[in-house]
Amino acid sequence: MKRIATGLISAAMLAAIPMPALAENPDETAQIIDEGLGQSQVQQLAHELVDQIGPRLTNSTNMRRAEAWAVEKMRELGLQNVRKEGFEFGRGWDYIASDVRMIAPRPLELAALPVAWTPGTNGTIEAEIVVAPIAKKEHFEAYRGKLAGKIVLITKPGTGDEPGTAPFRRLDNGEIAKRDAIDLPSFDPDSLERRREQSDYALELDEFLRSEGAVAWVKKSYRDGKLLHGTGYTFESGKTPSLPGFEIAAEDYRRLTRLAKTGPAPRLSLMAETRFVDDDTQAYNIIGEISGSDPKAGYVMAGAHFDSWFAADGAVDNGAGSVTVLEAARILKAIGAKPKRTIRFALWGAEEQGLHGSLAYIRRHMMEREGEEGLSPRELGREWRYLYPATPKPGYSQMKAYFNMDNGSGKFRGIHAEGNVGAEKLMRSWLSPFADLGASQVVAGNTGGTDHVYFQAVGLPAFQFVQDPLDYFARLHHTNADTFDHLRPDDLRQTSTVMAGVLLAAANDEDALPREPIPQAPQDSDPFDYKYPDED
Amino acid sequence: MKRIATGLISAAMLAAIPMPALAENPDETAQIIDEGLGQSQVQQLAHELVDQIGPRLTNSTNMRRAEAWAVEKMRELGLQNVRKEGFEFGRGWDYIASDVRMIAPRPLELAALPVAWTPGTNGTIEAEIVVAPIAKKEHFEAYRGKLAGKIVLITKPGTGDEPGTAPFRRLDNGEIAKRDAIDLPSFDPDSLERRREQSDYALELDEFLRSEGAVAWVKKSYRDGKLLHGTGYTFESGKTPSLPGFEIAAEDYRRLTRLAKTGPAPRLSLMAETRFVDDDTQAYNIIGEISGSDPKAGYVMAGAHFDSWFAADGAVDNGAGSVTVLEAARILKAIGAKPKRTIRFALWGAEEQGLHGSLAYIRRHMMEREGEEGLSPRELGREWRYLYPATPKPGYSQMKAYFNMDNGSGKFRGIHAEGNVGAEKLMRSWLSPFADLGASQVVAGNTGGTDHVYFQAVGLPAFQFVQDPLDYFARLHHTNADTFDHLRPDDLRQTSTVMAGVLLAAANDEDALPREPIPQAPQDSDPFDYKYPDED
């Protein structure tokens, strides 16, 4: 005999049945997916930031516009405690216009950009080139007396490249699985010493060229195909180089060097209009949050650097990450999420010059290290992580998870545990609702070079998403082609949806991600090594 | 019992032993390889042509310099009957300088080139853009009254590309083998009618824009990654367009269109300094030869077009082919080759505007067609091959083989028989000494778009080499990156060596390549077709 149990369980009885953690708010995950994929604002946000504002070189006039936009945008989204946290950086630099031509032996427009943080030309410079490959101080002597009145080409020309892999690609699961391995830590104390010695090279080169009477210097673009970058690093206040520096497209640079080898040295006309911006030497992190219901539960956080290079509009580096963070916040506000823990959103400043913004956040809220006082921003970037002992600040225990995005606009395929293997199980559960969107793999491996690094290095649970590489490194990273139209809007709908979902799961989980130990001074990985006297 | 035959055959006896054709001059093949690979001048020739002279747009001032260089070079090499054969083409056009900027809503240098054969700006034009996608005359009406005072963006912007194959590649043997197949000929008489209708579109568009009061027009580059071309075709004397035309890099063009969609129309500043060259409307083929020992044996010929686009230096298109032809001549002179048949070397003019140079050669020496008199160069390019009957001239029977090179600087992997299957056996034997250099495959397939086409179309034995594609179409063909450093010198040592060897074998072979029949009027391949009234 069978009895059909229709209508026999009341709503009150249902509410009393215990349910697994993830299913506690089953409709919230569905709402996130619906809002993030179906009502996405990523294109509108990216258009405003990338097309309308454009490049965001740290402390440039344009970056100030972007900072104001971001604060306003976070407020519009209804985030709480929206604020700019300043930190000492150095001067800004604006690129206004440039024009570089060969005027002899034949007239030719050259693809070129000024190098960031070099002075303009004050009108137009016309001079002959001299090809003088210089890579270190030891090379200066060979060129003494040969550079007066010249435009000095300092890079070896080399030859055209043969790009044998597809510029645009997605990862297969096997490639991702290979990242499920931890690198042994390694530390060479000599390398820190070498970095100290080398770090003044740019200004020493400038001083050498100036003292020899050179009128400007030129380096070759490090990518072929007429791509340009204009990268340069001498941003410290008061350390103004004397000479205008330019980057010339590889094809145009090599042509100059060949012509100089077989005939009269080509003459160039150089014009760069640039401007130093010294009225505020602080850079800023822009922070907002969705406050949690439990003030003692701490916070989870997502971040992306907001600054960019100036050669194009900072679209995939890192408009993509910035827009994803803002859109994840928008999605969570749109579905009315009420997380237990606070969810904090950070747009970091000055990442491109050495992760200065995230380091400043950690120094302010998380950890102090002996000997850090009095170090300049550049010295902090070089030395801070090697100072011991390291002492946590009160804010240290409040951070439960940090998620970073800075690998272009490719969709999320999973997440790097960054060596924190104890965290993998929880991250797997948080990602699990998004397996059908292609973001399911949790791998142990480490990644470097962006803003999760300092968090992770001080033992905090900090992670970076696995992303499809697309054409990020092939042709966009720091180039003059890093524009809105190389963002992939469908990928960004996915990244913002997954980020929103993971943040909410992390904020509501009964467990928090496990920390790693407070760092100790690293072990020299080759203590028995000897070096030649002149070995680098 | 055995007898050792040492010393029993005299030199005189050896000379009397008949040997197979190829081994007749065994040392000549070895000498060609030695000279071509070990003493190559391809880099020097390419440097002079590509770096020092640069772009060679038909009838431009620079092309005149290049023509003089080629004549001088052929004479230096000791070629006989060096000559320029002129033919009516139209006007030249010089590109001198340009500068294109966005001045609002934010200042930005844009990557751009003027479109060839459009007038300069006479100083600087500043105006707002209007995005008005126009692809044919039927679209004009929709924009009437909306373009006055504007810079008109005529291309649909589309979105960023996703290049999923390697830019630089070599062929595997299987890919080459697939070309061993003949396409059925097909002919649609309507297509000729459509081409007649469309051929005045460029000037009609110019006239429409002028009559509406537009100040300039802009098209989008057809390649992403900041590559530019500047291609344009209205080269006929007396048909000067009114408005300056520009090509803007895809990324920069799309940014303009997005900004125009969401805010005030961007303002641009446009400057182009260009010049029409009308003092000689003839273009020229440059021809030289190594005279054969048998005046009745006719000639074999290698050719490559010598003109280029202007966006860069015409290196892989077709400096590569031009240098290979000259170097093959140099190799043959260096080894003292005394061929039976004359070996003729041709550098064709005006290929890029429609194979005008090779067509002029054929009309002058090979074949006349009823109704060709009085047709303009552009009409000849469009119509000549459809005129019947076709009557060979006396020179027709003199040509025994033509070999063309116009697919970049990739090494030869074999040769296309271009449907002339009767020729395959001979070509295989001529290529056989070069199998170890990778050039051994003879495939039946057809190729189009360059100077062997008219020879082959009138029944002459004319062929194009199979070449490794490298990055020719991915980023170099007609772009601003077509520079010397994307030539591959090792490949060009091989192409010139193989070309020299094949020419000498063809010149000395007892057999000549078989012709195909004199062409007859083609069969309509779909005689039962119907069309909608407005169908293209």
From TrEMBL, chains A, B:
Entry-linked InterPro entries: CPQ (IPR039866), Peptidase_M28 (IPR007484)
Signal peptide annotation: 1-23
Coiled coil: none
Keyword field: Carboxypeptidase, Endoplasmic reticulum, Glycoprotein, Golgi apparatus, Hydrolase, Lysosome, Metal-binding, Metalloprotease, Protease, Secreted, Signal, Zinc, Zymogen
SUPFAM superfamilies: Zn-dependent exopeptidases
Subunit relationships: Homodimer. The monomeric form is inactive while the homodimer is active.
Protein name, entry field: Carboxypeptidase Q
Organism: Altererythrobacter xiamenensis
